[in-house]
Amino acid sequence: MSIAPHALYPYVYVFPDLDALSHEAADRLCAVAREAVQERGVFHIALSGGSTPARLYRLLAEPPRSLQVPWENTHVFWGDERCVPPDHPDSNFLLANTALLSKIDIPPGNVHRVHTNEDPQHAAVFYEQEILDVIDPGSSRFPRFDMILLGMGDDGHTASLFPNGAELSEQARTAIATSKPGGWDRVTLSLPAVNAARHVLFLAAGAAKAPLLARALHSPTPDVPASMVRPTDGTLAWLVDREAAAQLD
Ligand code: 6PG
Fold first, then answer.
1. Tens of pLDDT along 135-177?
2. Residues whose CB falls within 8 Å of the CB of residue 152, separated by 6 or more in sequence, listed in order
3. Contact present, 187 and 177 (Cβ < 8 Å)
4. For a surface tag, which of 99, 210, 219, 230 has the fewest beta carbons within 10 Å of its beta carbon?
């Protein structure tokens, strides 16, 4: 579905519902995957967690899209992970593995989950090293993912970068340990690692996102970490449904 961007926000696309935006996300992902493999022989993607991307993952797991992604040349990472076992209901790995990865023919060595059996600090160090082993940063400070999928929490967090968290000032590390206030310890890509991506794609749906979406699209502030995602030399797009877009001017 090719739709015009929002009149006031040129990188925001408003869809009737989650299903429609998920189809668009799947088409965009397939296009970036093919382009990356054509140009560099490999597609590096970081998946998001939460519930919003589940429909997208299911779409990617079935034809025609499952046949459009060059899975043998695709390396899958996560933008963030909860420090729980991979079979825990809160695991972001479990969400993607159940809906997608267990249903497609991707080499097991191409799936790079966070090793949450380690303590968070060690898990972050090991995860960062695995990223750097697969995505050579070359002369850049950060490895460059071809695509990073993100969601936004009702509090404006994205990945596991939480409002006014110390993690927002990290400028050297690619992956760091954080924790959700009152929740799980986490491992997350750092903000500069996210902003190094070629393509950042936010998915947001539902009325609960509406108050923070308007703020996320305005000037970057640590109060709303999603507002701080501004790719340095990449594209940014928000695919949202009408409910989430209800408070945009
Ligand atoms: C996480 C996610 C997180 C998520 C948002 C939105 O591990 O919590 O990565 O950043 O994307 O919280 O979650 P929903 O899609 O469930 O609204």
1. 999 999 999 999 999 999 999 999 999 999 999 999 999 999 9
2. 158, 202, 204, 209, 212, 213, 216, 226
3. yes
4. 219
Ligand 1 lining (C-beta closer than 6 Å): 48-52, 80, 82, 92, 151-153, 157-160
Q: Note the pTM of the prediction, 2 decimals.
A: 0.97
User: In the sheet where 185-189 sits, what is the strand order?
Assistant: 80-82, 185-189, 175-179
Model confidence band, residue 249 (pLDDT cutoffs 50, 70, 90): confident
> Which of 82, 90, 94, 152 has the most ligand 1 atoms within 8 A of CB, as the residue to mutate?
152
Instruction: Give per-residue pLDDT as tens, 114-130.
Output: 999 999 999 999 999 99
**What strands, in cross-sheet order, belong to the sheet with 235-241?**
12-15, 235-241, 199-204, 147-150, 43-47, 74-78
b/e burial code for range 182-201 (CB count within 10 A of at least 16 → b): eebbbbbbbbebbbbbbbbb
Q: In this structure, are residues 201 and 130 in contact, taking their beta carbons and an 8 Å threshold?
A: no
